[in-house]
């Protein structure tokens, strides 16, 4: 259903060429393609952007609540960075200039890039479990103005839901106000706030019992007192565990407690590993591993995320034994 909105708003109202709206005829089977806006599935857009002819590219999922941004030559903006960059540039958006900003929200697995912006802006950040309903409570109570998830969902209190087309319009407003390219805006952001290298690895269609026992055993391992003093040496990197937990959320609005929303390992250099299980169907399960590493030095901002994060991933695979216990050689999807 997203196609007609893209054509009406971006083409008819804002004057984008008609041929810039691709795959905009609604189809019940999504044209036989997975409707997820990420680098794994939006390959046609990525290839088009790599040619350098276009300065801005965006992909939406079928119902328009998620989006992905690409710059010239296929420069990719991950969802966590996108959320943080929008937060840092709210002065470019008339709505926020008029309404002000009361708070930010991000799901726990989303990178902490938003937190860096919030600290400078002196705006509170609410860290919630995955699932938009937690943001809705915050927005209804007037606590949150902008929120998002690493799964390419971003929204504000104008709607109470994630809104991919709104997020793309915000990006276009930022580009117009700053008169810079997508890549320049992102690199300026990294130079000011530091870069959060970030990646998510999905192990899909697992046997639920196997996934459950992996998570159960992992929780027992990392919440044992002895684990909090662990050090992991991978190549030239040494990671010291600072704290671990099974994430628990207390809703500041109604006091509802939501437990066991993912396992967290935070290292002394602020790197994070997160493990979370989600049901992908009635009979299969998905286990997700999230890795994050913060780098302040601008001279270190040009590396490939997977190269930077490979030591953390090695630790994650070692302690979870996911390959050995599932027979998998690697994740199904990397984003």
Give a description of the structure.
It comes from Cisticola juncidis. Belongs to the phosphohexose mutase family. InterPro entries: A-D-PHexomutase_a/b/a-I/II/III, A-D-PHexomutase_a/b/a-II, A-D-PHexomutase_a/b/a-III, A-D-PHexomutase_C_sf, Alpha-D-phosphohexomutase_SF, PGM. The chain has eleven helices and 16 strands. The strands form four sheets. It has a seven-stranded antiparallel β-sheet with strand order 9-10-13-14-15-8-16. A four-stranded mixed β-sheet has the order 5-4-6-7, sandwiched between helices. It starts with a helix and ends with a strand. It has three domains: about 80 residues, Alpha-D-Glucose-1,6-Bisphosphate, subunit A, domain 3 (Alpha-D-Glucose-1,6-Bisphosphate, Chain A, domain 3, 3-Layer(aba) Sandwich); about 120 residues, 3-Layer(aba) Sandwich (Alpha-D-Glucose-1,6-Bisphosphate, Chain A, domain 3), CATH 3.40.120.10; about 140 residues, Alpha-D-phosphohexomutase, C-terminal domain (TATA-Binding Protein), CATH 3.30.310.50. By secondary structure, the protein is α+β, with helices and mostly antiparallel strands.
Please report the total strand number as a whole number.
Answer: 16
Overall spatial form: globular
State the end-to-end CA separation: 24 Å
**Would you tell me the structural class of the helices and strands?**
alpha+beta
User: Approximately how much beta-strand content do the residues carry?
Assistant: 25-35%
**Strand arrangement across the biggest beta sheet:** 9-10-13-14-15-8-16
Order of helices and strands: HHEEEHHEHEHEEHHEHEEEEEEEHHE
CATH fold node name of the largest domain: TATA-Binding Protein
CATH homologous superfamily designation of the largest domain? Alpha-D-phosphohexomutase, C-terminal domain
Quick one: CATH class of the largest domain? Answer: Alpha Beta
Low-confidence blocks of residues: none
Count of the domains = 3
Query: Under the CATH scheme, which architecture of the largest domain would be assigned?
Result: 2-Layer Sandwich
Keywords: Cytoplasm, Phosphoprotein
Protein name: PGM5 protein
GO molecular function, one term: phosphoglucomutase activity
Subcellular location: Cytoplasm
């Amino acid at each position: 259903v997203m196609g007609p909105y893209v054509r009406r708003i971006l083409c008819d109202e804002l004057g984008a060429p008609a041929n810039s709206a691709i795959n905009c005829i609604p189809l019940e089977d999504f044209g036989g393609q997975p409707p997820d806006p990420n680098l794994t599935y939006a390959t046609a857009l990525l290839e088009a952007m790599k040619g350098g002819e276009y300065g801005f590219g965006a992909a939406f999922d079928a119902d328009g609540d998620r989006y992905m941004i690409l710059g010239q030559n296929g420069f990719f903006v991950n969802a966590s960075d996108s959320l943080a960059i929008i937060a840092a540039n709210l002065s470019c958006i008339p709505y926020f200039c008029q309404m002000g900003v009361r708070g930010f929200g991000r799901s726990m697995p989303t990178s902490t890039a938003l937190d860096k912006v919030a600290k400078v802006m002196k705006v509170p950040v609410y860290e919630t479990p995955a699932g938009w309903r937690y943001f809705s409570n915050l927005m209804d109570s007037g606590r949150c103005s902008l929120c998002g998830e690493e799964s390419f969902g971003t929204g504000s209190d104008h709607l109470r839901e994630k809104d991919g087309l709104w997020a793309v319009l915000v990006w276009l407003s930022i580009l117009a106000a700053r008169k810079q390219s997508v890549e320049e805006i992102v690199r300026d952001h990294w130079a000011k706030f530091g870069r959060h290298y970030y990646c998510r690895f999905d192990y899909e269609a697992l046997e639920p019992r196997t996934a459950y026992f992996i998570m159960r055993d992992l929780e027992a391992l990392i919440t044992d007192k002895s684990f909090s003093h662990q050090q992991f040496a991978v190549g030239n990197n040494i990671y010291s565990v600072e704290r671990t937990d099974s994430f628990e959320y207390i809703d500041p609005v109604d006091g509802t407690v939501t437990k066991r929303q993912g396992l967290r390992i935070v290292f002394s250099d602020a790197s994070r590993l997160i493990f979370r299980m989600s049901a992908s169907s009635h009979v299969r399960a998905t286990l997700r591993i999230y890795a994050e590493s913060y780098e302040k030095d601008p001279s270190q901002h040009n590396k490939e995320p997977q190269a930077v994060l490979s030591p953390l991933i090695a630790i994650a695979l070692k302690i979870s034994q996911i390959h050995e216990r599932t027979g998998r050689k690697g994740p199904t999807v990397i984003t």
